[in-house]
UniProtKB/TrEMBL annotation:
<dbReference type="InterPro" id="IPR001810">
    <property type="entry name" value="F-box_dom"/>
</dbReference>
<dbReference type="Pfam" id="PF12937">
    <property type="entry name" value="F-box-like"/>
</dbReference>
<dbReference type="InterPro" id="IPR032675">
    <property type="entry name" value="LRR_dom_sf"/>
</dbReference>
<dbReference type="Pfam" id="PF13516">
    <property type="entry name" value="LRR_6"/>
</dbReference>
<protein>
    <recommendedName>
        <fullName>F-box domain-containing protein</fullName>
    </recommendedName>
</protein>
<dbReference type="InterPro" id="IPR006553">
    <property type="entry name" value="Leu-rich_rpt_Cys-con_subtyp"/>
</dbReference>
<feature type="domain" description="F-box">
    <location>
        <begin position="9"/>
        <end position="56"/>
    </location>
</feature>
<dbReference type="InterPro" id="IPR001611">
    <property type="entry name" value="Leu-rich_rpt"/>
</dbReference>
Amino acid sequence: MEETTTIALPNWLHLPRDVTANILQKAGPEEVFKSAQLVCPQWHNISMDPLMWRTLHIPSRDTSSAVKNKLANICFRAVDRSCGHLQDISIETFGTDSLLNHIANSGNTVERLRLAYCTDITSQALINAANKFPQLEELEISYSYVSSKDSIEAIGQSCPNLKVLKIIMERRKIKDESECNDEALAIAKTMPNLRHLNLLGNHMSIAGLVAILDGCRHLESLDLRGCFGIQYLGGTRLGKRCTEQIKEFQGPDEYLDQSWYLSEETCDDKDDDPYWDMYCDCGLRESSEDEEATAYRIAIEYGLI
């Protein structure tokens, strides 16, 4: 007769507190609120610890109102539980002005803020919240409408510790070509301590690039892929300066995933887009000496040299 071997299952309640907290963090806020905190008194106690909510990442690409409202509510509750200890927060799609304001008012400990696909957050909301992020070191704004000259200046003036800025924009037409350098000039004037800058898809011209090189002298990496307003830099004095001044430089014409600029929504108006040839055919030309001289003149006019 065969003997039956009994395998003892681990008792999850005997895990060290920090291990349990790590497991709950990996489960994510939604699972914690929905079920994990209800497992036992110990898990509920751990889920109430503000230090467990220092990092808050809630990924989502669902744009339905029901899902966005549910995740926004979860984020509100999670921010409350952090009790002013929040350091790193990343939200996608469900961000709103009221949620950003709630995060800003939760304390001044946020060091990293990521807003992706948050089309319901306005530039004015970021301007209002800027002075409540004095410890901010990293900011990412991806496929959102938060980025503007004024919001960038507000962040630059209120967040002296900012070291990393990432602004990713979908391909879109320029409403006013005279404003194409506004964001670049705002960065150059208010963010001298930046170390890493990613402006994928920005519509700046050579003048904007020169301003950044002059205003952000500590840059270690600069990603300008998709910034086709700058056009071709290879073999020019400005291109040489970029590679000599910055350790990791990615120019406008370097490889970029086509999904970024060939979405169905952004391709409908390609016949009216003056930059379409540069996006699709890489019809890029070298920057002339006159263009570079103009860029330096504009930078001088803005007091950046």
